[in-house]
Structures are given as C-alpha cells and as structure tokens.
Amino acid sequence: MPSVMEGSEGGEEGENIHYEETEDDNVSPTDLSELLKEGTKESHDRAENTQFVKDFLKGRIKKELFKLATAALYFTYSALEEEMDRNKDNPVFAPLYFPLELHRREALVKDMEYFYGEDWKEKIQCSEATQHYVDRIHHVGQHEPELLVAHAYTRYMGDLSGGQVLKKVAQRALKLPSTEEGIQFYVFENISNAQQFKQLYRARMNALDLDKNTKERIVEEANRAFRFNMQVFDELDKIGMSLTEEAQDGGVPVHDGKGDLRKCPYYADKLAGKAGPGCPYHTAMTLAKQPIVQLILAACVAVAAGAAAWYVM
C-alpha cells in the first residue's frame, strides 16, 4: 500500500527513501520513540525493498494498482480511526489523539470518489491481506489499546515522512491533476510543519506512562504492523503481474524494443492528445527499407569512409 512507514524521509523520484536520523539531545535510549526507531529498522528496510515499493519509487505504478492500494488504505484507516475514536479518552492512547491533524479517512473518501465515482462503495472490496490487517487493528483497539500506539506510529509518521515523496511520484507517473485530486490521502492541510509535528508526536509518546514490558510489546506490535503492510504490498504486486497491458494505465508500452515510448516526441504528443508529425524512429525505419534510399546510404557511407581515410593519413 502506497505509504512508507515511519523512519523514512524523501529523496527524488527513483531514489530510495532512507531511514530518518534525527538528533535530539533530550531523547533517552529508553524512550519509546527511540525504542521504536531502533527496533523497527530491519522491518522498515524489508518493507522498503519489497518489489511493489521499489517499483512505485521508480514511477512504475499502474493506475489500476494505485486505485486498489488506495482502497486498501481506506479500509485500514477506517479501522484505525474507529479504534482511535474508541480510545480517545484512554490514558494509554489519549495524548496521541490528533483527529484534526492526522485522520485520513475523509481524505481517502475523496480519493475513492475521484477514482471510482459517486458509487465507489459498490465498486471496492477489502482484500484478504488488508482484512487481516484490519482485524488486528480492531482486536488491539478493543482488547489491548496500549498497542494502538504502534499502529498509529507506523502509519501516520510514515505518511508525514516518505509518504510525501510517494505523493509526488504518483502525481507525475499517473499524470494526476496539479490540484491534488486522487492524492488527498497525502495532503495534511492542518499541519503546517511536518517535522515539528513529528517531534511533538514523539514527545507525546515518550511522555506516556508505560513500563518496560509494555514498551517492548509496542515495538513488537510495530514490527507486526510492518509485516501486515508487506503482505498487502506482496498481494498488490501479484495483482499487478496479472494486469494486461491495456489495464496498466500508469505504464507506457515499450517503443519497438528500443526504449521508453515516452521519449519519442510523436508518442508524447499522441499521449497528450495532440496531432503531430510521424514518429522519427518509425519514419527512418520505413525509409531505410526503400531500395533507392539504401543505394544512397551505401554511397554516403563509401564517401564518408574515403574522407575518413584521407583525414587520418
């Protein structure tokens, strides 16, 4: 699913999203934020190196697949925010309750309407991997609310970090409107400074009254959240391999095995809905097959060879 979890910061399209290293003199190695950062590094690296995420970062995202990933996010955040609302007054989670700043469900509804139309609810369904993730979130929210911290941390902090890179990649690769339709999920209108907000969030986490055992369980649950996300990534990757060329709205066919079709000015115009001259590649290949042209080319080569021999004497 298109979001890179907490512990990542962005680079340019096609680059890796590296683990975020922030220095804070006030942070102790026993603080929950540090325990989560160190305890999930390996999981983060594995998630970042799934084929789905690597392809996404390179701009190789198919529109149909992006739509399915967005639907998976809708089901995930609907469950997460339902359980957060349930525990908004519970001291083990209440300090991390930021509905105005963080909640994504309403933004995802807008994205669903953009991609699927007004009857979007009738067109989407929760996938098997996403359902496992959703079930775990509901279990935690109802029976182990202190572990809800792990799920909120891995999702929202990642959305504010690497997710902002994915937003730009998706917008370019899928040619989405500059007005941000289809990627409202990544738009946090009520957070003016993401870095400052993440620092506030970590400070709130570190202030939770938790014993060592509970902190260890939260780190373990965060790693579990990463695994759920990787299972969704793998599921999407398998679906992507089964899509036909015509269904790959985000991709572009290869130009006669000689390169990316987008690099051909003729096809660039065609994709943009313009009428233009014939493709230089196809034009050249067609002319080269004509006998008279072949004779002229042979003569030119002979003259060029003679000139070159004279030059180096």
Automatic annotation (TrEMBL):
Biological process annotations from GO: heme catabolic process; heme oxidation; response to oxidative stress
GO terms of molecular function: heme binding; heme oxygenase (decyclizing) activity; metal ion binding
Record carries keyword tRNA processing: no
EC number assigned by the record: 1.14.14.18
Region of interest: Disordered: 1-31
Catalytic reactions on record: heme b + 3 reduced [NADPH--hemoprotein reductase] + 3 O2 = biliverdin IXalpha + CO + Fe(2+) + 3 oxidized [NADPH--hemoprotein reductase] + 3 H2O + H(+)
Family note: Belongs to the heme oxygenase family.
Transmembrane segments: 292-312
Organism the protein comes from: Apteryx owenii (Little spotted kiwi)
Keywords on record: Heme, Iron, Membrane, Metal-binding, Oxidoreductase, Repeat, Transmembrane, Transmembrane helix
InterPro entries named in the record: Haem_Oase, Haem_Oase-like, Haem_Oase-like_multi-hlx, Haem_oxygenase_CS
One Pfam family, short name: Heme_oxygenase
Residues noted as binding heme b in the record, renumbered to the chain: 37, 44, 153, 202
Protein name as it appears in the record: Heme oxygenase
